[in-house]
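User: Hey, my collaborator sent me this sequence without any context and asked if I could get a structure. I don't really work with proteins. Can you help?
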Amino acid sequence: MSSFDELPPRCFQGVIPAAIATVSRDGTPNITYLSQLFRLENGRAALSCQFFNKTKQNVFENPYATVELWDPVSFDAYRLELRYLHSETAGPLFDQMAMRIQAIASHTGMKGVFRLISADVYEVLACEKREGFLEPAGELGPPEPLDDQLPRTELRGLQLVTQRTCRAQTLDDLLTTLLESLKDAFGFRHSMVLMPDESGERLFTVASRGYGDEGVGAEIAIGDGLLGTVASRKQLLCISSIEGELRYGRAVRASVQATRTRRELTPEIPLPGLPDAQSQLAIPLVAGERLVGVLAVESRSALEFDEWHEAFLQIVGNQAAVAIENVLLRERSEGDDAPESHAVPIPEDDAPPSRIPRRFRFFRNDDCVFVDDEYLIRNVPGRILWKLLREHLETGRTEFSNRELRLDAALGLPAIRDNLESRLVLLRKRLEQKCPELRLFSTARGHFHFEARCPLRLEEAGG
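Assistant: No problem. I've predicted the 3D structure and written it out in structure-token form, which is a compact way to encode the shape of the chain:
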């Protein structure tokens, strides 16, 4: 016999889907796989119900069920004897289970079709480990011990992250330091921070680590996909075995397409980040009631994140949200005469200026900027870049301030919460990637230097 409360948490991550068996009143059995199995307190479990299917009908007639689940590391098998208690269609439990399904449904273009109908709560009557489920190891010897009891260094990692980030003076420094600290403290090789745009309807990637040149600039609508769902719900989401979850969602989508009109389904949302990610943990960055961003870490391993990762990264996320808000408030409060103590020296560039001209074209109808016929940036950062290029070419200016950008009506920045600082960070990183001859960096709070180390050719298109 085994205790249900002592089962490893990874048994409930869905890496290997659990199976449920029920029997109707006349004795007809039915076996199917579960989308979600949650462990609750007081010897109870919650099962997701997404369709009015045979399983639900059977437990209404006969409230007993058997569930088998597996440890994806040791492959130990466990059998649960359950008794149906009730269904919940609202409240914290329902919201927690629905969020995961909503994220998968949104990503696969099934929003409103593939959804949680109820969270079905069962009493766990018995939990038994299935002996003899696996063949003996033979000559291989005893298995290596699992790492469940290895000493953790969460507090040391938390100290490292907070100690470094509290020293950041600019938003760019803060985000870069945050992701580097997560790598050093927790070993997260792939991470990103997304922030909302001026409309509050989309997220854009303003900082990333582990993705090369392709990480910065990716966008997703708030409410769409895994990260968009975290932003709209302002709740943590951890998904293991993403490939399996998406495969299940796509299978449901194919079934719906065969029976309904295709116009009911929306296109699948591409995931920003690793195309082959197997697990993802996303944390909303909330200051007060305001969403300031989303912190996401991901891995190619299906068992990368555990319960302690969720708890400690949520603490890190809370600290990061406050730090981001403080940095933005400091930068916005600085006037044109920034204190000399905040001055930052202009970094030297050992590379000689280029004699080859770079051609920039601005498409006014959609605010896109292309460099040498290659897309560079768009929207507010595109309008800012075009302003800098024109003034630099016409007057030779190199010094600018955030305040003058805010006061320039042509840029169309909103009066409140304009996210200008995050847009400047994105612009700087896109220039580093696509046009290193243009340099943009902070010289003091609220002030920055713009330098062109090549001849410029500017063209405009559109009305």
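In plain terms: The chain has three domains: 4-132, 154-242+266-333, 353-461. You can pass these tokens on to your collaborator as they are.
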